Amino acid sequence: MTREDILARKAKRDQIAEQIDTLQQKLAAEDRWLDAVRLIVPAHFLSGIVEASDKEGDGTERSSVWRQAVMEALDAATTGMLPKDIALFIRENGGLEAKDKITRNPNGLYNALNRLHNDAQITKHGDKFYRHSLFEELSAADTIDEDAGFSGLKGSNLFIFNAIRENGELAPRSIIEMLRESDEFGERQSGNPQYGYSAIQRLVRQGVIEKTGLGCYKLVSKENEPSDVPASNGSDAGSDDDGRLKALRLV
Question: pLDDT tens digit string along 183-230?
């Protein structure tokens, strides 16, 4: 084997890697297009298309890589799973294609979970996701709320809370990008550039997150705060006499 043979083989490898990267970019563009379609097409209409597509070929159901990876994770679980738990399962136990997807585009997992939830294929309760049978089992045992770990937050606030909790710290631009790429909040973030920043500041004012010295945001530690703060005006947060949030009550 000569030096020229090695260089030629490496050049071939680099060419293949470049082709794969190009295909990944094309695939990401198609995924963004489909995500945009989901925002404007009625759910029942889209569901019919998905069902028809799944029944093509040999007549067996053909799930997407994300869909199959998520369902395998939930099928193996005995409790509800946070997105970070599902991501870890895929990295450790998923197929090669699923591992590649979670490495290249970890935010794609959130879109997959939202799609599965919207298609009523999985159950979401609190911050966690469940296969239907496990959710029914825990509900019957009256332990579902304890397992779900309700944070008392909703909408974009809950989305940002979970994103920061799963990543430790996040820069504002990373949070905005995650909102923009999500099925649920992407349209609102794209239509209003201040949408995500307003949600971040709202969580800061509520004492849920705080800014670090590096300009990122992290969750505020609740270790030394009371856990039985009464709710005010139907919210899950107590406040001092001056109206500032004192603590977030977990329900």
Answer: 888 888 998 988 999 889 988 887 789 998 888 999 887 543 333 333
pTM higher than the cut 0.90: no
What is d(CA 152, CA 96) in angstroms, rounded to the nearest whole number? 37
What gap in Å lies between CA 8 and CA 78, rounded to an integer? Answer: 51
Contact of 99 with 90, CB cutoff 8 Å = yes
pLDDT at 68 over 70: yes
Instruction: Name which of 68, 53, 251 is nearest 150 in CA terms.
Output: 251
**Contact between residue 169 and residue 218 where contact means Cβ atoms under 8 Å apart:** yes
Contacts for 60 with CB less than 8 Å, ≥ 6 apart: none
Packing angle of the helix pair 108-118, 96-104 (nearest 10 deg): 110
The Cα–Cα gap between 154 and 46 comes to 26
Q: Are 113 and 211 a contacting pair, CB within 8 Å?
A: no
Taking Cα atoms as reference points, which of 95, 64, 98, 93 lies closest to residue 77?
Answer: 93
- 221, containing H or E segment: none
**What is the percentage of the chain residues whose pLDDT exceeds 90?**
17
